[in-house]
Amino acid sequence: MDQDKNNDQPQQRAAVPEPSKPAKQGFLHKTGIYGLELGVAMVTMVILATVLSFGAFALSQYIYGTASASVGQLALWSAASTIVWLPVVYIFYLRSGAYIDRNPTVVNNSVQRAFVVIYQVIMLLTVIAFSFTAVYSMLNAFVQAHDMAETLVTVSLPALVSALIFAGAFVAFFRHPVIGRKVFATALLVVSILIVIPVILYSMVTLRATNMDTNRSADMYRLQSAVSAYYNTNSRKLPDSLSALPSSTRDGLNNAISEYQYTKKSDVEYELCATFSKDTTDESSKPSSSTYYANGASNYYAHSAGKQCYTEKQPTYTNYYDLYNNSTKDPSSY
């Protein structure tokens, strides 16, 4: 009877589980054309490692205080390049890595292995070159008579940092990653920030000061030329102050005329002063000797930091015959 009752009851079907939907993949885990994205990742990794190396050398120059205007421009180029290339490397490295994680056998593809080997040979040779530079410069610093700190800071240290950067790029595409790809990408991001941010800050301060000093030097030449013109057109008399110069001269300066000091010392001699931010006495960005002899002025581009005064003397020749016969002399000596 009980069995008949059980047969009369409708049988319940076992619940069939619905097929699970595939997890939605994020942008960094998708791959469009794997070969292309892997190639982009490797090429841009080389570019990024190179510009970071330039940035390391420029930063070391800033730290030691020997960065010139050309180094500052190189530093800005390195920072701008890093800002552009870092996201490209980050995206394509993770996207191609995600494809490898889903399809592990792809690393055995002969074409991929050939390109990866070429890439790794280039990286390895670069690591060796920078390592040699770091070791040789350190050894050389200890045997030189000059201050070895400059060599250690401006050559050995950035060379060592560059070797580490390229070593990281070398292991990035191992068939069996030494570290997780996300960890490597994050580490690359951190290293880039640690180099780029100081480079940008140093460049903003240093290049601005350098450009302002260049403007001051150019203004000094304009003022010297204006004083000479005033002297020649006013019966060989020097102006009593800079305010006596034509308004076109004063208005054409890069900075306010109040930034410059003028002192009349005699009928033919005067002093021009300006305050500079940087010491450029050891830099090569100075006017040529022909410029110097052509206008008889001091070299305003070569100066120490702080207030600098230059004594100028108006030539006292009476005709061009005297000037021609003494053309090998400094006009300020007449």
Largest β-sheet summary: 3 strands, antiparallel
How many runs of DSSP E, i.e. beta strands? 3
What is the mean pLDDT? 82
Strand composition percent: 5-15%
Rg over alpha carbons = 34 Å
Overall outline: elongated
* Biggest sheet, spatial arrangement of strands: 1-2-3
**What order do the SSEs take from the amino end to the carboxyl end, as H and E?**
HHHHHHHEEHEH
Question: Helical proportion?
Answer: 55-70%
Number of helical elements: 9
Secondary-structure class: mainly alpha
> What gap, in angstroms, lies between the N and C termini?
140 Å
> How many domains is the backbone divided into?
2
Low-pLDDT segments, ≥5 res: 19-23, 287-294
Summarize the structure in words:
The protein is elongated. The protein folds into two domains: 27-178, no CATH class; 213-333, no CATH class. The chain is 60% helix and 6% strand. The model is unreliable at 19-23 and 287-294 (pLDDT under 50). β1 (261-264) and β2 (269-276) form a beta hairpin. α2 (34-64) crosses α6 (181-233) and α3 (69-102) packs antiparallel against α6 (181-233). The longest helix has 53 residues, at 181-233. Strands 1-2-3 form a three-stranded antiparallel beta sheet, covered by helices on one side. The protein is mainly alpha-helical and 334 residues long. The N and C termini lie far apart (140 Å). It is built from nine helices and three strands, in the order αααααααββαβα.
